[in-house]
Amino acid sequence: MPYPRTARVWFLLLAPLCLPAAALAAGEVAGPIEVGPSWGTADAAHSSATLQTILVNHGDLADRVIRAECPASGQVALDNVTQHQDVMGPNPAQEQAGAAQRGSQAGLDLPPALDGKPQPVTASFALTQAKQPLTDGVHVPCALYFARNGERIVLFTLGVRPPVTAEP
């Protein structure tokens, strides 16, 4: 049975009003996070290490590393603040306002591209209580959790910084 004429008229009148909301919701999809290279440096006792990786947010929305886990290797904690490369940082007032807005939640901000140019961020993690000797050549698998992009498994290689890859 076809819709009554008045229902079709209302649909035709209201449909254009709904399109901008649908387009806005569709435009707020987080883009991919490029990860790598990922490397690490062990301490002299081979019981802890500093792990580092380059993260690039290719989306239109900011993202955030909210947690890291390396259960097979030991305890891991985020060890640094956001480091933007080739981008002017916020002034102290902007930084203070951003810190107040974020509250005390630990994490690492991943800004979106600025004028189409990606803003790489170096993430640094402290790995402690190692479950195996941490020597050059050892691979340390970790899970990074992002506020918008879910979970990514990252393989850190100790000893040598691997070449840049194009892994999205």
The tally of domains stands at 1
CATH superfamily: PCu(A)C copper chaperone
- Strand order, biggest sheet? 4-6-2-1-8-7-3-5
Biggest β-sheet strands, sense, barrel: 8 strands, mixed
* Average pLDDT over all residues: 75
- CATH class membership: Mainly Beta
Alpha-carbon distance between the two ends: 49 Å
Structural class: alpha+beta
Cα-based radius of gyration, to the nearest Å? 22 Å
The CATH topology label is: Immunoglobulin-like
Instruction: Give the uncertain stretches in residue-range form.
Output: 7-29, 82-92, 97-104
The percent of residues in helical segments reads 10-25%
The total count of helices amounts to 2
How many beta-strand segments?
Answer: 8
Which CATH-level-2 architecture? Answer: Sandwich
Overall shape: elongated
**Strand content of the residues, in percent?**
25-35%
Helix-strand pattern, N to C? Answer: HEEEEHEEEE
Characteristic key phrases:
168 residues; Immunoglobulin-like; 8-stranded mixed beta sheet; 8 strands; 35% strand; elongated
Please describe what this structure looks like.
- The protein has helices spanning 5-27, 92-102; strands spanning 33-42, 49-57, 63-69, 75-78, 108-110, 121-128, 139-146, 150-158.
- With 168 residues, it is α+β, with helices and mostly antiparallel strands.
- It has one domain: Sandwich (Immunoglobulin-like), CATH 2.60.40.1890.
- An eight-stranded mixed beta sheet has the order 4-6-2-1-8-7-3-5, with no helix packed on it.
- Mean pLDDT is 75; it is low at 7-29, 82-92 and 97-104.
